[in-house]
Design brief:
By secondary structure, the protein is mostly helical. The chain has helices spanning 3-19, 22-31, 39-58, 68-86, 92-106, 111-119, 122-141, 149-165. It is globular. Pfam families: PQ-loop (PF04193).
């Protein structure tokens, strides 16, 4: 791939990631409801993002190879809190925080743990599972509720651009 095209792919991915969850958050806030959104899907997505981010940091990869992940994690946390709030489960936020922080710490207790998480394509499997969990939720409820098509479209774009750039 030409260097200029590679730069466009990288910069556009970062730009899209910077606002990717904004339409989803806006939809939830406007409706004051998290109907149609899967908590399980978001938990899986966050887990996959955290494993990938921890691996990149642990091995000292350049920031530009994973810059979008801290941005996406922050947006997912905000969305997650709104989903918990509007579904009346805000008390679970502390439990999820402890689980995620414990997982973040445990990933690098032993080098083989983080290596296994990446070598087995765990992040990819978790990410795919998160999408299937959301689709399952949509199938079961027979209603899209507050699911943002724009957020899903931006996610598809960033996946495609990362494939090209990588």
């Amino acid at each position: 791939m030409a260097p200029a095209l590679l730069d466009v792919a990288n910069w556009s991915t970062w730009a899209v990631c910077a606002v990717m969850k904004v339409p989803q958050v806006a939809a939830v806030l406007a409706a004051r409801s998290a109907r149609g959104l899967s908590v399980g899907s978001l938990v899986l997505e966050l887990a996959g993002f955290l494993v990938f981010l921890k691996y990149q940091i642990y091995y000292g990869y350049p920031l530009q190879t994973y810059l979008e992940y801290p941005i996406l994690i922050a947006q997912d946390v905000v969305l997650f809190l709104f989903i918990l709030h509007f579904s009346g489960n805000m008390k679970q936020a502390l439990l999820y925080t402890v689980i995620f922080l414990g997982g973040w710490y445990m990933l690098t207790l032993q080098k083989w743990i983080i290596d296994l998480a990446m070598a087995s394509n765990l992040c990819t499997l978790i990410s795919a599972a998160s999408k299937f969990a959301q689709l399952r939720c949509l199938w079961q409820t027979k209603e899209s509720g507050q699911v943002s098509a724009l957020t899903w479209s931006m996610s598809a774009y960033t996946c495609a651009s990362k494939l090209l750039a990588t």
